[in-house]
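Progress report, Aim 2. The chain analyzed during this reporting quarter is listed below.
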Amino acid sequence: MIRRGRRAPIWTRWCISLGALLMLASGGILVTERVLITTATGAIKQQNLLGTAAGGGQRHADVKGAKNILLIGLDTRPSWAGTDQLSRSDSIILLHIPADHSSAYLISLPRDSYVAIPAYDNGKVPYRGGHDKINAAFAYGSRGLSGAAAESHGSELLALTIKQLTGITPDAAAIIDFSGFTRVLQIMGSVCMYVDETVTSIHVGHDRNGNQAVPYKTNSAGQNPRPVPGVTPNVYRKGNHCFTPTEALDYARQRDLLADGDGDYGRQRHQQQLLKAIFTGAVHQGLTSPAKLPTLLSAIGKTMTVDDGGTSLADWAFAMRGITPSRLVTLKTNDGRFDSRTIPGVGSAEILSPTSMQMIRAARDDTLAAFVQAHPSWQSQS
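Predicted structure tokens for the chain:
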């Protein structure tokens, strides 16, 4: 098992999807404005992230039929490979597009899911294969590497792990850089959404003089929060809110002091809800403030490193032009309930339930609509 270094802030592990950009660039706004799509896609860094996980190296020539896109958010940067802090994929999302391209589904895979990781040789530090948490796959693939090489090999091993687990061959993939995402929210100014449970921040609060301060101390792993005397934490109460950029990002990173006590599952759900709220707000701004749209699209594009699967990003955008915010469905793994077990040599790990595997395989078989109809509680409120 890979030794854990000091954990980076939670928000650096959160991702806005490639699909959100493509749908924003096509969802009823830019059908005839190809120049704006070029603006958006031209800002995206592209490189091979899937390697042999992409159908044995076969690339796609079009965007026909059902598609599955792998979205990856990291808890450290690959450039840290020279230190003892290896990059782990703490946000892993499957974006499923049905064959009729009329809707989209987001499935978050718990970062602590206990899975088999296949043997892999990145040319620097081979991995012999074994069982571990799924977020370790990126780390094993990127060991000893930095920069683009770490991104490519880490993503490839993660994609191979997901392919072995689910039978899904990703059609495209994206790594999300949070540092650029801050700019997206700054351009938008605010984002409005429904808060489904009261959340107390352990990261942002104010002291007696009204100055921003950290309200809780944690251990080196970011756990066991202890209140800081004299500092009042931000509290996001259940109900409708319009968040500032700082509040939105802070809300989405919380997992410790959630009213319903649902920890990582609550955070996953809130991240999905925030993603959908940003998509909705961005589409609205594109319709009401078209002059702002090129800047917004360019800012979103700069947050990503993308493997387009051999199909141009502009073609992806046009193929997804029928997807609107109301047709973006967010789903809960394990129905939002914990099933953790202590694994020798690994620690506490999450076990994906048979119904969770059924849901994921429904993405493989393009039958998610039927699954959601049969399991309505697995759809997150947003």
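Residues 10-188+290-378 form a domain with the Nucleotidyltransferase; domain 5 fold (CATH 3.30.420.590). The first helix runs from residue 18 to 24. These observations will guide the mutagenesis work planned for the next reporting period.
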